[in-house]
Amino acid sequence: MQLVRFLAISLVLSLLAAAPARALTLLRDPDIEHALGELAAPILKAAGLSPARVGILVIDDAGMNAFVVDADTIFIHSGLILRMQTPAMLQSVIAHEAAHIANGHLMRRPINARNARTAAGIGSALAAAAGIAAGSGEFAAGAAAGIQGAALRSFFAHTRAEENAADSSGMRFMAAAGVDLRGAVEVMEIFRGQEALSVTRQDAYARTHPLSRDRFRRIQQLAEAQGATVRPDPQAEYWFARAKGKLSAFLRSPKWTLTRAGESGHEDIRLMRQAIAYHRQADLKRAMAAIDGAVARRPEDPYLHELRGQILMEGRQIKPAVAAYARATNLAPGNALILGSYGRSLLADGQVAKAQEFLERSRSQDGRDSRILRDLAVAYAKQGNNGMASVLTAERYAMAGRLKDAKIHAERATALLPRGSAAWQRAQDVLAAAEADEKRR
């Protein structure tokens, strides 16, 4: 799967000061999300949460923030991941956000968790998060997330009592998982002194997670109480290096990546990063040599086969790309992003009916990938099912915040689909979101 800015979840923000609209973009990559899931799993288990249910998604933003909008997802900015120096630092962020979920802190927020998983609902919830990242004081269009007229900061910001509780719970989860609590101290040291800055100069994390001197001292005391130094976990170190290494290879310049490709000490990660750098330089021969070297070292790794498929697909080697994605799918048949990549390659190869099958499997498992909606719409249109093509297009526009365009396609879908069918009802959901947006205006 391509790690690009393809999911513009950007409901237009009607900010009071007529500030420009702000979009949040998800960076969807199966390898990175798997690596983050490996880091999160012991923390989530210690919190009494299911690693199979709570996912970690990356937002394309150089700032430092992490937040939750429902009980199923922890959002982390790419900038925060790249600033972390150890697995324990990143795991401390995950533990803190997991504590907000486990402690029920989301219950006080007037946001419908079920709605946040619909196409329009995702855009609404993350549009609100975009406002806090931009430092907005008020959010006039808050009805999209059920917070009309409320201060945006009060929507996402936790109370000091909640922060203290999340600190205690999060560090307890870390200790139970065998993670070094000093990671939490090191993260908080980054944010020390931010409360003295104006709101517009603070990192979003500091605005939504207020850090006082007393709170910082408590975190230090909890870490000191752990006692003996915790031995590093080789598995955590590997997955941390892999997530950070792949993310940086896509976000930073190829030259920067090539000079640092081997810094993790893992040969497969070095080759993976080189493959990405050469691919971004349009050097297909070198990119393939590097990714083939990585695959040779981990032949049963579906994520390396998926990257191989991406390199081939974007190098216009369609049939070899189909084969690479097929191999990845066989190794990870339940991964929605890999299923979507395979479906996309089949569509490019002209295998429309088979492409539709895998794209639908992907969408049913994870509806937050706008490219799946786009590709599925194409597949249905090619087979003459314009009703399904229209509802999928409506959902894609809703997810991108283009509610006027979404309404046009939702109305078209309503006229073409059987009344009362599941797809017809999805069109009604988009129409309801579009009409609510019109009323706010």
TrEMBL record:
Its cofactor is Zn(2+). Gene3D superfamilies: Metalloproteases ('zincins'), catalytic domain, Tetratricopeptide repeat domain. InterPro entries: Mito/Outer_Membr_Metalloprot, Peptidase_M48, TPR-like_helical_dom_sf. Residues 1-23 form the signal peptide. GO terms for biological process: proteolysis involved in protein catabolic process. It holds the Pfam family Peptidase_M48. GO terms for cellular component: membrane. This is Putative Zn-dependent protease, contains TPR repeats. GO terms for molecular function: metal ion binding; metalloendopeptidase activity. The keyword rRNA processing does not apply. The keyword Zinc applies. Keywords: Hydrolase, Metal-binding, Metalloprotease, Protease, Signal, Zinc. It comes from the Bacteria. Residues 31-222 form the Peptidase M48 domain. CDD domains: M48C_Oma1-like.
